[in-house]
Design goal:
This protein has 141 residues and is an all-alpha fold. Among the domains are: 36 residues; 49 residues. 82% of the residues lie in helices and 0% in strands. α3 packs antiparallel against α4.
Length: 141
């Protein structure tokens, strides 16, 4: 009888540990998916902005100031597109604009641009997690 009770307790403990690990792996997988999506969105936004700044630089070098036909429509479609996370995107956008003002995008190759976008995306993701799961004392105000 004691052996059966002990085996039952061990099985119960093992099952609860297994369930805990499964739940933790689901949370980790979800966080990784969110991180990957944010990184991809940030990279695409950065590359679009980089191409836009290159087209503006090429436009300013043309005689007569003629602008390409496709450039204006692309900027309009990006401006009309709704943004889901307005606050985090604006901080990333502001940082990328600051880099653009320094002439930094012209010095980057694509690998460096990807690394920079991923770094900014990671910082943005961590700030968002800290904001969502921050200290309870700041939420009670």
């Amino acid at each position: 009888m004691r052996t059966a009770v002990k085996e039952s307790e061990n099985t119960s403990v093992d099952d609860s540990i297994l369930q805990s690990h499964l739940a933790l792996s689901d949370i980790e997988r979800t966080e990784k998916d969110i991180y990957d999506q944010i990184a991809q969105d940030s990279y695409m936004e950065y590359m679009t902005m980089l191409m836009s700044s290159e087209s503006h630089a090429a436009e300013s070098q043309r005689p007569g100031g003629c602008s390409p036909i496709s450039g204006g429509s692309r900027e309009q479609s990006n401006a009309d597109r709704p943004r889901l996370y307005e606050e985090p995107k604006s901080s990333l956008y502001e940082e990328l604009l600051a880099l653009d003002d320094l002439g930094y995008p012209e010095l980057l190759d694509e690998d460096e641009a990807l690394a920079q976008a991923l770094l900014l995306s990671e910082q943005q993701y961590r700030e968002e997690l800290q904001y969502r799961h921050g200290s309870p004392s700041s939420d009670s105000k």
